[in-house]
Every structure is written in structure tokens, then in C-alpha cells.
Design brief:
The complex is a heterodimer. Chain A is built from twelve helices and one strand. By secondary structure, chain A is mainly α. Chain B starts with 6 loop residues before the first helix and ends with a helix. Classes of the chains: A mainly alpha, B mainly alpha.
Amino acid sequence: MGIEFLQGIISVIIILGIAPLFAGFVNKQKAKLTGRVGAPVLQPYYELQKLFKKETINSLTSSFVSRVSPLINLVALIIAAAILPIGFWKPLISFNGDIILFAYILGFARFFQILAAMDIGSSFEGMGAAREATFALFAEPIFFFTIGSIAFISGMSSIYEIYHSIQLNNLSYIVFIVICSISMFLLAVTECSRMPVDDPNTHLELTMIHEVMILDNSGIDLFVYQYSGYIKLFLYTLLEISFFYPFSNQGYFLGIAIFVVGLIILSFSLAVAETITSRFRMKNIPLYLLFATAIGILNLLIYTFTK
Amino acid sequence: MNDLLYPENILFTLAFVIQLSSISFLSIRDQRRALFSSQIVLLIGLALGLFSTLLSALFTSAEISSKTLLYNFISLDGLGTYFLFIIQLVAIPTTIYNFSYLQHYIEQNRTIKSFVTFYIVLLISTQFVVIANQAILFLVSWEVMSLSAYLGMILEKEKEEVQHGSFYYFAASHVLIFVLYVFFFLLHNQTGSWFFSDYHLSFTSGIVVPIIFILSFVGFGIKAGFIPFHFWLPQAHPIAPTVLSAFLSGVIIKMGIYGILRTYHFIKPVPEWCGWLVLVISIISAVFGVWYALSQHDIKRLLAYHSIENIGIIGIGIGIGFIGSANNLPAVQALGFGGALLHTLNHAIFKSLLFIGSGVVYQNLGTRNIELMGGLVHRAKYIALLFMIGSIAISGLPPFNGFISEFIIFTGFFKIADELKNYYPILMLMFVVGLAFVGGLAVACFTKVNSIMFLGSERKEVKRFHTSVYDYLSLTIFTLMCIVIGFYPQPFIGIVNQVIATGFVGKDSSSVLVNIDWLYFTLIFTSIAFGVFVFYLIRLKLEKKYGKRTSSAWGCGYENLNPRMQYTASSFADELNSIPQSLLQYHKEVKVSENAYPIPSKFESHSQDFVDSKIVLPGFNLFRRVISKIQFLSQTDIRYYIGYILIIIIIYSMIAFLWA
């Protein structure tokens, strides 16, 4: 308690505060890479502010599900944010088995996201919901093959301790961790509906996954969904940055430096990935996810046999 | 007999007497009154039973010794009392639902007295199954339980599907009882006793104990519904009256789990291959159970497949416990068996909730096909909400009870990996991924069910959606249990811990369950609820300030959207069902216009059970063909049979003579 509790609170506030900034940063770099000037880095904040003041329009067929699920989404993501560590700070929620809580609380958010989409009663949202359910299913194993495998190797089951158990003293383990982080990146792309799985910028309903689910939302609903989207992106980025943990054990300022540098590197790699790839056909997305899973399994097997 | 009359046992005995006496109230001529009075008496009996169970050692004091009654024929040990608790807890709300469900049959001028009789007999015999301490008493109550369930199932016997489905159940329970005969004969042969308390065998003594284990897993596995013994579940559940489906899925199939755990008491410790066998079969049951569920359109059949999934999850817990037992790791045993036991309770609760919820919908719409439902949330908001809570719970998501038991099972995997090192972490990780995959499929399945049934607009016009106070009462009780176990699991963990401490591992080493940071869950889940509430208030305030209205959904400019244009259940699940197409036997029939002029087009998709269509039915056909070869032996004249008996006796005595 005491100082740790305060640090936990501060990290949640940091996550909630700079999540939109990160998204804006990625978009800015993406624009630069494609030769455009691009929107200001703070654009996500402007958009959120605008949405905040808009009228809320619900579908005629919508029920209480539409009204509560954005809020449930946001709360679930805040809880998930409280499980993830920033740098060397102990997160607010950290106990044995919180890795499972993390995975399942995101599942809880997804459950309501899908229901809210179906609540609108249009086939567009239905299509998005079905895709979300399908792809999320294939994404689930990747999470456990990356962080889960580190957990099982180290014998830890709390995300904070799992990342702390990473030791860079053995070559095969370093390779293992690096490949885990690649696999994790592929997962992050899927979960945060970025290219090449989903294109957050298109406006053709047939080609979208996440965007089409919130197609009919507006005002406060859309505000919450957008904001949750930014938080989700930031959470997966944090999962990725945390692989650099072993370096941040050294000291206080090094930890902050790694956090900032990690954010910059990741935003750059996301922007590059989004610039050089085109969106997959829907049919190929399961293959992409199975590919990421296969990397995870192979990596694990190779590590086990070379140990 | 007199030990039943001891002061502390009077309540226990009285509960059974009252439950049994409720049958006599059916002699009242007016059906409505007969139903009402008998069910009230039954409820009193059940409540009294639950009260006496709660008073028993398991739930009150720290020290528990198994209590035996009636010359040792009845025993109240930890495991039995726990299952007795589950039965009584689930039976009460289910019986409350009876009031409303059977009204419909009374309105149709159908006699329901026989059904109610079988229902009461079923409840009593099920309770006897778990407290029996003697093989013959166990088998008799088991058979009475199976038969009364069958007889209750054929309430609407004039329907062909009812005859078909109930026959599956009948055949399966018939095969099962023979397996159990052999199982108990072998036990008797080994120990020379019919009393459970005398059964202490060890795997080290030859081939018989492994056979006993396999027999128990097959026999009780048929009841529980592990794949590949599951084929009767999806046939029998849809056609049974809803009250019975709820009880069948919530409690009766758990008797299979009880049997397996009881056998474990006879033969513990088990070797490691038992654990692996149970784990592999369970994970297959879990994955394919939910995958089959996803492809169903019949809500009750879908729920039946979900029972297979959940039995799989319980089985995974048991498998973990077995591995712990083989390696003498009390902590792993506590987590594995504890997870299994808690999930048994949880599944009994939310599955009954879902079945009763679907029964309420069925009563009003007259169909079980979810493709014809939709928009019911506008008719019955509260029922939609309760059904949704049940769905979240069964998908194993926080903040409800399903998550708690799945969490314990996950922790069990971590514990094995931690304690046994070597190649175990990798193997356990595979199972963890499997279990997470099952969770993902369950989310897909239950978002499908909820959204197609309750959300959107009505696909088939509903004239009147009638719900009675009994529906609400029974559903609310179940939902409250889901919420309480989810938000405040400590007391239930304590109960499970007592069971583990008394029958499975020693008292001192079972504290691992209690030592999980349960307070965290209470805090987190409460803050979720609180957060949503606060945000909702903010939302209301903002809407007041900036306005809100409703408008039709975006249809690419097309104005006349109709309910049939909504996404359907088949299209929702199509992508996932197409992946294991051959295993699910998933067929699609598409008929569309090929020339310029449109003709009425058609799309259908079906899924058949692999085990049923590829193994069971062909197997029976083969059997019938073989049997027909020797049919000439079957004659109408009784003298032939006397001749057969004579021949058999001669052969038998010759064998006996030569043997000696």
C-alpha cells in the first residue's frame, strides 16, 4: 500500500491520459510516411471533445444493451489498464493469476461490444459482430502462446511478475523473447483493428470489422467507443513495451526513458506496418492469425528443445 | 431404523417424508389445485432438506466426520452432502417454475398429474443417489432416477420427435446401467462388501482396478455426457419439458460427475495416465461441445451441447486433480477438484437459468428455432437481462460465477507447471490455450444466442408475451446466485474447501483454495458495477444537456428495412462453422437464381452430430443386421424358450462341472 498504491493510480491516469496522444502520433507518422502533412498529433483529443458535445442517436430497435455496453467497455478497459505495469511501477491490480483476469476482462468488453452491435438490428453491424467474434477467437491463443508461455516457463502468473522474470542472460531465451514480442505485435494489430487486418480509415461497410460495429453510434456512445479504442491500442502497446523490462530494472530514469523510447519505436513500427501493407481479404485473416499462433508454438517448441 | 429418529436427524428424515408426501396431494381432482398444493408441499420439503443440509457439518463446523444412518445404508460425507446441497439448491427455483410452466398444459386440458409424480420421484431418487452408501441402494435409486426422468420426458408422447429423442435417452441409460452392474460386481468381487465405505482399492494390485476405473469413466461418462458418449444429450434435452431439461442438464448429468468422483474415493491415488485420459477427453468435449452448439438453431439443443462443453470443463478440473493425486501434490488436487466441484455448482445454476429462460420464450412463441425469434427485449426486458447474465456467466466471463471456477482451473494448470517443471509447463500451456479457445467459442455462441433471440426487431410477429410472477421468481433466484458467487465467492470456496479437506486431501494441505486473493475479485467486480453506474449517471446528464433521439439504422440509403434483413444466426456463425466442416457435418444448401430474372431463393444450413451419424447409428444398424441373422431363433411358441433355458442350464452346469 502507500507509495505503490499511488504509483498504481498514477499509471492508470497516465494510460487514460496519453492513450489518444499515442494514436494521434501513429497517425501523424503514417501521414508523413505516405507524403501527407496529416492531422495534428492532438487530433484525437479534438475529435473526442467534439463527440462529447454531440447529440446521441440510437437505433429504433435498440434497447438498454446499447446504452450500457459502451460504458461497460470503458470500465472493463480501465480495469485492464490497472493490471498492466508501466515501467518498473507495480500496477494497481497485481495478484497471482491476473493474466487470466486480463484476458477475460477484455473478453467481457468484447461480449458487450458484439451485443451492442447486434442491438442496432442492421446487417452491417451484424457482419462486423460476426467477424469480431470469429477473429477474436483466433486471437485468443496468440495471447497465451506469448505471455502465457513466458508465464509457464517462469512459473509466474501475474503480468507484473511475468515481465519481471525475463532475464537476458541466455541466448536462446533472448531469441525466444524476441519472437514472442513479434507474435505479440501481430496480435496487437488484430486486437486494435489496425492494418493489415482491419482498416480504421475506410468507409466501406463491407470491408470493416471494428468500425462497422460502431457505424450507427454517435455522440456520447461514439465518444466512449473511440476512447476505449485508443485505450485498447495503448494497452497492447504497453504489453509490447514491457518486453524491454529487463533494461528498466536498472534505475528510475532509465525506466521512464525506456517507456518513452518504446512508445516512439512502437508508434513508428505501427506506422510503417500500416504504410507498407494493404488490408487482407477477410478470408485470409484467420490464416494470418493462425500464422501468428504457429510462430508462437514453434518458438515455444524450439526453446524447449534447445534449453 | 432408530438412528433416523435421533434429534439431529429428524429434520433430515422429515424433509424426505414431506417431499414424498407431496405426491399424495395429486389425488385432488382439480388439476390446478392438485399441482399447486403438491408443489407447495414439495417446496417445503426441499427447503427443509436444504436447511438440514446447511446445518450439517460441512457447512457449519470445521471438523467433519462422515455420518452414517440406517444401518450404514445412508452416509452423509463431504462429497455426498455437497451434491445434496446442489440438488436441493437447484430444485427449489426449478419447482417454482413448474407453477407457470405446467399452467400451459393445464390450459390445453392435458393431464399433468403423472408428470408431476415422476418429477417428484425424480427429485427424491436423485437425492438418494448421492447419499447412498450401499451399492444396491445406489443402483436402485440410480435406475429410479433414470426411469422417472424418461417417463417425465414423454409428457407429449404423441409427437414423433419426443418418441425419437426420449428413446435415445432410454437406450443410453440402459447401456449405462449394465456398465454400472459390472462395475459394482467387480468392486464386490474385490472387497466382498456392498458398502461404499469398505471400498478401498489400490492400482498396484493387478488389472482389475484399471478396469474398474475405465468402467466408471464409461458408465458415469455416459450420464455426464463426455464426448463420445454425449450423443443422447442433444436428442433428449430439446424434447423434454423445460422443467425437466433444466433439471436434467443442471443436476442429473452431474450425477455422472458425482460417480466419477465417488469412484476416485474408492481407488485413490490414481496413476497419472488416468489424469491424462480424463484431461484429453475433457478438452475434446469442451471444444467440440461448444463448437457444435454454435451451429445449432434449436435453442434447447444448443444449450444441451453447452452442457457437454461445461462437463468438459468440469472434467478438466478432475483431470488436474488426478494428476495431482498421481504425483502426490495436495495443492494441485485441491485446485483441480475444487475447480471441478465449484464449476459443478455454477453450471447447475446458470444452465438451469438459461433453460428456464428459453422455456419462457418457448411458451410464448411456440418455437425453439432461434431464427424465428428476435426483438424480445422490447417485450420482456427483465427476462432478457437475466438471460444475458446467465450467458455471461456460462461463457466464463467476469464478474459472474463461471469466471470464478474457470479461474481456479486455470490456477491449477499454473500450479502443475510450477510444481512438476520438466515438460509439464508446455503440456499445460496447450490445455490453457484450449480452455481459452473454448472461452472464445462460448462468447461467440452466446453473443449469437442473445442477439438473435432478444435484440434487433421481431422476425416472427409475437402476439402477446406473457410472463408470470413464477417465471420472474425462479429466474431471479438463479441470477442472484450467479451474482453472489461471482462477487463474493469466499463462502462457497470455503464449502468446496471443506469437501476437499474431508475426502480428497488432508486438512492442512487444502488451504491453497482459500489463499487465492478472492478479495481482489470482490473489489474489482464491485468497482466494475460501481463504475458502470457512475458512468451511466454521467451519460444521463450529458444526454440531457446535448440531446438524444432515436432514428432508423443506416441502410445505405434504403429506407424500407424489414426484420428479415437482419443478420441471422446462421450467418453469424457461418464463418466459424465452416472451419471444421467435416467434423461438424455442416452442410449448406443454396438455391439462387442463375439467370437474369429472380426466382424465390433458399438457403439452409444443417449440422449433424459426428458421433451420432457416423458411429452410433451405423453401429446400431450393423448390430441389427447381425441380430436379424439369428432371428429365426425367436419363436412364438413358449416351448422353444423352455428348450433354450434347458440348453443353457446344461451348458452352464457342464462348464461349472469342468471348472471344478
